Automatic annotation (TrEMBL):
This is J domain-containing protein. The keyword Transmembrane applies. The chain crosses the membrane at residues 56-79. Keywords: Membrane, Transmembrane, Transmembrane helix. Residues 87-153 form the J domain. It holds the Pfam family DnaJ. It comes from Cytospora chrysosperma. CDD domains: DnaJ. The keyword Transmembrane applies.
């Protein structure tokens, strides 16, 4: 240790060399523990990074596979949607300008060929027959049904869009008139039934009153006869 006079002297450590060695061991142990802690943290960090990268790659590949699969499905649906489908007119073999009589004749001809009885089947689940029947029911229905089918499928038929709208309005008007007429008929029927029930009640009351009056008249007549014969046999 350096003094103010410039001289130095050695400072003795308490405990001597043994204490110094012990302190050195503690420092080494502390440094070794810190190093182990750092190594353990690095190991955990590397493991977490590895797991994250593994999961990231897995889900990335999975998402890529799903996207590819969805794209294939969507493309097949789009291609199928652009493929021209057979219309009801093609099914029956008639023109979009055909009259209802022609449609009915074509349906009868085809139904005889595909009818379950003709094919020796007891069920009506033949797809060809069901499709022909569906086509006939649509094309032979009200005008607004057929023109709506034509406009929806881009078929140039008997009606334009204005004609179709007018046909729909006329159909709605007829349906409303029919509904009101049915309501009026139902009201009239209910009213007539009420009147009939009232008439029958009054008729029963009248008949009961006539029976009561008849019974009363018979009772009075019997009493009068009884009194008459009693007077005849009475002593003078």
């Amino acid at each position: 240790m350096l003094l103010r006079s410039g001289k130095t002297y050695a400072v003795k450590t308490p405990g001597g060399p043994a204490a110094a060695s012990k302190n050195n061991k503690r420092v080494c142990t502390s440094e070794s523990g810190m190093l182990n802690t750092i190594l353990l943290m690095c190991k955990r960090l590397l493991r977490s990074t590895y797991i994250w990268l593994r999961d990231f790659l897995y889900y990335t590949m999975l998402c890529g596979f799903l996207c590819t699969l969805l794209a294939m499905i969507a493309s097949s649906v789009i291609i199928r949607g652009h493929q021209p489908s057979q219309s009801y007119y093609d099914t029956l073999g008639v023109s979009p300008l055909a009259a209802k009589s022609d449609i009915k004749a074509a349906y009868r001809k085809l139904s005889l060929q595909t009818h379950p009885d003709k094919l020796g089947s007891s069920t009506f689940d033949n797809p060809a027959y069901l499709h022909i029947r569906e086509a006939y029911e649509t094309l032979s229905a009200e005008d607004h049904v057929r023109c709506t089918y034509d406009l929806t499928n881009g078929i140039e038929g008997l009606w334009s869009s204005d004609d179709c709208i007018r046909a729909r309005r006329e159909f709605n008007a007829r349906e409303e008139f029919r509904r009101l007429d049915e309501l009026e008929k139902a009201r009239q029927k209910n009213e007539n039934e009420k009147k009939e029930r009232q008439r029958r009640r009054e008729e029963r009351w009248r008949q009961q009153e006539e029976r009561d009056q008849g019974a009363m008249l018979v009772s009075r007549s019997a009493a009068a006869l009884k009194g008459f014969f009693a007077n005849i046999h009475a002593p003078w």
